[in-house]
Amino acid sequence: MDKFRIVGGTPLNGEVQVSGSKNSALPALAACLLTHEPVTLRRIPQVKDIITMEKLLAFTGAAIQDGSGTVEVHARSLEKPEAPYDVVKTMRASSLVLGPLVARTGRARVSMPGGCAIGARPINLHVQALEQLGASIEQSYGYVEAQAPDGLRGGEIHFDRITVTGTEDVLMAAVLARGETVISNAAREPEVQDLANLLTKMGAQIEGAGTSTIRVAGVERLHGADHTVIPDRIEAGTFLLAGAISKGELIVNGCVPEHVWALVIKMRQAGAEVEEIDGALRVRCSRRPKATDVTTEEYPGFATDLQAQYMAWMATAQGISFVTETIFENRFMHALELARMGANIRIEGRQAIVAGEEKLMGAQVIASDLRASASLVLAALVADGETIIDRVYHMDRGYERIEGKLASVGAKIERIQ
Ligand code: EPZ
User: Which pTM value belongs to this model?
Assistant: First the structure.
């Protein structure tokens, strides 16, 4: 099992390039199941979750050509509209194939994701939404079995709570449903907008993606397309925080500033200089941040996927900050590992109380999930001495060549087997 060995204390200086968005690439790959024609996707990050999704598409019968960053998916015919347990258990986002499989083949058998480190992660909202489109869905032996032998029909869908992949799942089903679908309380994430752009290129008729109400006029069939996914806003935010916590000066190239604006505002409030320069963001921070509270919200609020990384920065702040997590019920695992590095954090339900310390100390720590591992890397960059982070496979799920990118701007980081 790979580990990272990081020696802290070196300010990061230079430029890093943001890769394509994992959370945009995953629904985009699933969308390829909706047409019998080939679809070309570009700027696809080479990370573990993408490989898992490609395996899943191949399992259903699609042909995949992965050319390091450009992927062609050709779902000419889908013999096996299923997502088996041993694939889904490693990646919850596998549920993204549920909508496309039902819409394209009239049936789907998808394993329930089960829980993961950050929470229960049910898909009840996905199921309810698809039932609104006429699918009949049973749950048995840990699988969701969906049938729509006469195809799907448009409907009124209102999500009880905002769900990103739930919105994406039902959007991909609605584009081939007969008649109009209105999705209210939809997720507004940039990844939802990016998916709608791809579906539109494939011939779908969609209005309002990126707002809370999305209208879809169903069409008979979709055709192939060529689409470049948006940059990864969570990777961009992670690098901005890496530049700040290490007290360096970093240019984050190829990001969309608007997609990380809630973080930029927080970082400025905490005392970092963050400037927009054409198609990039530059961060400079020469001292410890001022303690600044944050509450995670759905987009355009502060992203839950940046909460762990931000908490690492606040662990070195002057003063006490409150970090409130409203999206997931158990997303403070990183706090326990940060405490091993000397961070002073108390968890009270959905709130973490972070009393900033002048110094963190290197230690042996264990990553628990994708973004928690990023938070430990950030803390290690500024900690005194050496940190060994175990189970970095969590990072490999969502960050492309992270140690290479960080080393290129001065971080003392190496991967050890
Ligand atoms: C997406 O997950 C992202 N994953 C997550 O990123 C991200 O943390 C999350 O959205 C929130 O922004 C992908 O896009 C592949 P949700 P998703 O459905 O769609 C509850 C990362 O680090 N819920 O918006 O699974 C759920 O339990 C990952 O890249 C239900 O109760 O999240 C959660 O509390 C981690 N029933 C809340 O809603 C449902 O049917 C929001 O979840 C669906 C969700």
Answer: 0.97
